[in-house]
Design goal:
Oligomer: single chain
Number of strands: 46
Strand content: over 45%
Structural class: mainly beta
CATH topology: Maltoporin, Chain A
Number of domains: 1
CATH class: Mainly Beta
Number of helices: 7
CATH superfamily: TonB-dependent receptor, beta-barrel domain
Helix content: under 10%
CATH architecture: Beta Barrel
């Protein structure tokens, strides 16, 4: 409650200041004024300045001025929002996490995210939207949005509004060239097709060679990306009462190995022992040949993580062995690709290290305006997204190493002293179909209402084929050069032959993850209603409520069977309905036509899920597990949030400035957390351990903070844009952390810590200059300063990125037909990593998987996602 009192007191002070500023400048009417921005986040058109909730909107003009090309570029100009490229230790365009106000969802499964992206109001699985040239506006809403948007808008939502065709024939040709082989090119054509039909056609391409050399593979760049994009929009308006918008969009991504590396205990970068232990073979066991293992202290990086040197940026992404094994998989020699099993597009299968994607979108929106002011809106949409990546899971060079007795017992017996080159082929495919009906009253009355129904079907399917290639180095002593590596057991010296001593089975040929399939099928149906009443000329009360039914079915597939192998039948299938009622109340006070003061209360839910591995346990065994997981059994109830928010929006300096200030507090309950190596009593009465992650529930956490967004027109030539956010998070009781157990030896040490992998503090300051050179030409310059606070690698709060400060510069000229710009991004070459992750080390170098009680459940390395370097380039647009 203390925070609420502080928020209220500070808000009153700000209100007085804004009122005072308004009165002082009221006499200066007729001067410059900021252009009004219209948003549609509440499923109706309203001014950004009047909207009584926290929202940042970027128009197509602002997107062009800032040089925004992808959603990660939006982060710098949106307080309280972070878009994480760092997932499963990678710095890639595979999975994306939308992190609002510090709430990290702790999973990369797209059907279980804490926030959702909408395209023209229709939900989509995943957080990608292809090319930026068709975007009219990006609306970023912070705080629970369940009442308006429904499922998986637990902490926020993003609505991408696409462009309509123009009324006259026009077009543009765009080209960009920059350092590191960066190239973008595109064509836009639009215009009428008769009196009531219009079209907009765009195609674009993007390529970059990558910014970092792979020190382990001569000539290979890390971070190469390529995209081809196509979109067609057709709008039919037979009258001023009816509008039908149909849109098709497709794109393909083809990327190389991502720009990242990792530190283990041999790197010389570790500087602390936080308290955990890990099982590791020791050199002392070499002489007696007793093959023992010791529990040794965990070491890691504490504090700011050093930036890797050029020689440390190295991956096994040129391994001939790994690529041969990949080839054996994709020709289905060993593992049939599981296409046609689920109702999703076929998997994309890369033949290289990196990522491949194919995505398609189709939507139809119908707007009907009635004579009495009522509006009927119908939107139906289908989205498909299939992407796969072949990754070096070790994030560093592990092929051919010889550890002289060190390492972990991860692969059984002494072979672990010769580390694995761990890689995986991770294939994902998903699709969604939705339809929504919405009827709203006229907005020109004191009592306004809206009712609606939505139905969304989502399917997600993943097949992961892992490779843990364990072998002795090709030094002529332990083994001969082999295409498919093996792992020899030194015990053969006491009997038997070398040829028959492969203790690693068929590692490098058959993997430990040869039946790793997971799938989700989700149907979410909901009814929602909204009423808005003007209590007086200045005071408005809004009430929104959504009644939602989330039908979730999850499962996997059994092992391959037969010769040739075929995919197994569905296994571990679990189904449940998660019902919720999601309200939002807004009290909106407008003391005058320049200011809006609002208070809101809202609730949200994070989708429920399952622990399918618990389905085979007895009641007594399940009770043992529930005692460790906060009551989570096979079914895990939804996570919930309650949010209160106080905000002020004001026009200042007689319309030449605008400022939006928001304070919030969000309480999270029944927080889901992953646990590793949960123990129970086996059927034989002996201790047993569940392999893999088990999701617990019952945790609590709190989010709180302040967000500021504003613009000022200084004069006819200069303007300033600014943002600031302080997004606090605190993990509370019931939250158990695998991070703090593995690193510090205590699952509960996380209490009082922050969520990881987002900046607590962030902000920006931008200066714009624009002046007419003559009647036909304008000169412009823009400077952006972007501040990103430190980000922790894990909830243990040990390693962090340090803060980052980036400067972008753009300058050029614009005429009626031409726009030419020279630019520099990250001009001072700031090297703050994009993210860090304390991920499991499957190479065996760090150690083996412990018992989950006296030794760490999992050995960790610190992965580093490398910063984008300084890029200097030019871009030009010709309009006709």
């Amino acid at each position: 409650m203390k925070l609420i009192y502080k928020m209220a007191a500070f808000s009153v002070a700000i209100s007085i200041m804004l009122f005072s500023t308004n009165n002082i400048t009221h006499a200066q009417e007729g001067m410059l004024a900021i252009e009004e921005i219209t948003v549609t986040a509440r499923k109706k058109e309203e001014s950004l300045a009047d909207a009584p909730y926290t929202i940042t909107a970027l128009t197509s003009q602002q997107i062009e001025m800032r040089g925004i090309n992808q959603l990660s570029d939006v982060v710098g100009y949106t307080p309280g929002f972070f878009y994480s490229d760092n997932n499963v230790g990678k710095n890639s365009r595979t999975h994306k996490r939308l992190i609002f106000r510090g709430m990290n969802p702790r999973t990369d499964i797209p059907t279980r995210q804490a926030s959702t992206m909408f395209i023209d109001g229709a939900a989509t699985v995943g957080a990608e939207f292809g090319g930026i040239e068709n975007v009219e506006r990006i609306e970023v809403l912070k705080g629970p949005q369940g009442a308006h948007f429904g499922r998986a808008t637990y902490t926020g939502a993003i609505n991408i509004v696409t462009k309509d065709p123009g009324d006259e024939f026009s077009g543009s040709i765009n080209f960009e060239a920059g350092k590191y082989g960066t190239q973008r090119a595109g064509i836009v054509l639009e215009g009428p097709l008769g009196d009531s039909l219009g079209y907009r056609l765009t195609t674009s391409t993007y390529d970059t060679d990558g910014m970092y050399d792979n020190a382990n593979v001569e000539g290979q760049k890390l971070g190469a990306q390529s995209t081809d994009d196509f979109a067609l929009t057709v709008v039919f308006e037979p009258s001023d009462r009816i509008k039908v918008k149909a849109r098709y969009h497709s794109w393909e991504d083809s990327d190389g190995p991502d720009a990242g590396t990792a530190y283990d205990y041999r790197s010389g970068r570790h500087n602390c022992s936080p308290g955990g232990t890990v099982e590791r073979w020791g050199a002392a066991h070499m002489v007696p040949w007793d093959f023992g293992a010791d529990n040794v202290p965990v070491t890691t990086v504490c504090g700011k993580v050093p930036v890797p040197t050029a020689s440390e940026i190295a991956q096994d992404t040129g391994s001939a062995r790994a690529l041969k094994l990949l080839g054996m998989r994709i020709d289905e020699h060993l593992f049939p690709i599981a296409n046609g099993i689920r109702d999703v597009p076929d998997f994309m299968v890369p033949d290289h290290f990196g990522m491949e994607r194919e995505a398609e979108e189709l939507s139809i929106a119908i707007d009907i305006n009635f004579d009495n002011g009522m509006n009927l809106n119908i939107i139906t949409a289908d989205h498909e997204n299939a992407y796969s990546s072949h990754n070096d899971l070790d994030r560093r060079v592990t092929e051919g190493l010889y550890l002289q007795g060190m390492g972990g017992g991860m692969f059984g017996s002494w072979g672990a002293n010769h580390p694995a080159d761990a890689s995986d082929l991770r294939m994902n495919s998903m699709q969604d179909s939705s339809i929504e009906f919405r009827l709203s009253s006229s907005q020109d009355q004191k009592f306004r209402w809206m009712i609606g129904y939505s139905d969304v079907d989502m399917d997600w399917f993943t097949q992961n084929i892992g490779s843990m290639i364990v072998y002795y180095p090709n030094d002529g002593l332990d083994n001969s050069t082999l295409t498919t590596p093996v792992c020899y057991n030194p015990y053969y010296l006491f009997g038997g032959t070398l040829a028959g001593s492969n203790v690693c089975g068929n590692y490098g040929d058959v993997t430990s993850n040869n039946n790793d399939f997971k799938w989700d099928t989700v149907n979410t149906s909901s009814y929602y209603a909204s009423i808005e009443a003007d209590i007086s000329d200045n005071l408005t009360l809004s009430l929104d409520v959504r009644k939602q039914d989330d039908d979730v079915t999850s499962g996997g597939l059994g092992p391959y069977t037969g010769t040739p192998k075929v995919v197994g039948s569905p296994v571990n299938v679990q189904q449940a309905n998660f019902k919720s009622t999601l309200p939002r109340v807004i009290l909106d006070y407008k003391p005058n036509d320049r200011q809006t003061i609002y208070f809101s209360y809202s609730e949200g839910t994070l989708p429920g899920l399952f622990n399918p591995a618990l389905a085979s346990l007895s009641e007594s065994q399940l009770a043992e597990v529930k005692a460790q997981t906060g009551g989570a059994g096979v079914k895990i109830d939804e996570e919930t949030s309650e949010n209160i928010e106080f905000g002020i929006k004001s026009s200042i300096m007689d319309g030449r400035g605008f400022i939006a200030l928001a304070f919030y507090q969000t309480d999270l309950d029944n927080v889901h957390t992953p646990l590793f190596s949960v123990g129970y009593t086996g059927d034989d009465g002996l201790p047993a351990v569940l392999s893999g992650n088990t999701t617990s529930q019952g945790g609590k956490a709190e989010l709180s903070g302040i967000e500021l967004d504003g613009t000022i027109l200084l004069n006819d030539f200069w303007s300033l844009d600014f943002t600031f956010a302080k997004n606090d998070s605190e993990i509370k009781s019931g939250f158990q952390s695998a991070d703090t157990f593995d690193l510090m030896g205590d699952r509960n040490a996380v209490i009082g810590n922050e969520f990881s992998r987002y900046p607590k503090n962030s902000g920006s300051l931008s200066a714009n200059y624009s002046k007419e050179v003559n009647a036909e030409m304008t000169r412009f310059t823009r400077v952006d300063y972007l501040y990103t606070g430190k980000m922790y690698a894990s909830n243990a709060m040990l390693a962090h990125t340090g803060s980052g400060q980036k400067f972008n510069l753009r300058t050029g000229i614009e005429t009626g037909n031409f726009r030419v710009e020279a630019y520099c991004t990250n001009c001072l070459d700031d090297d703050q990593p994009k993210g860090l992750q304390q991920m499991y080390d499957l190479s065996g170098i760090t150690g083996g998987f412990g018992d989950g009680a006296t030794t760490a459940a999992g050995p960790r390395i610190l992965s580093v996602s490398l910063a984008d370097k300084r890029v200097v380039g030019v871009r030009a647009t010709y309009k006709f």
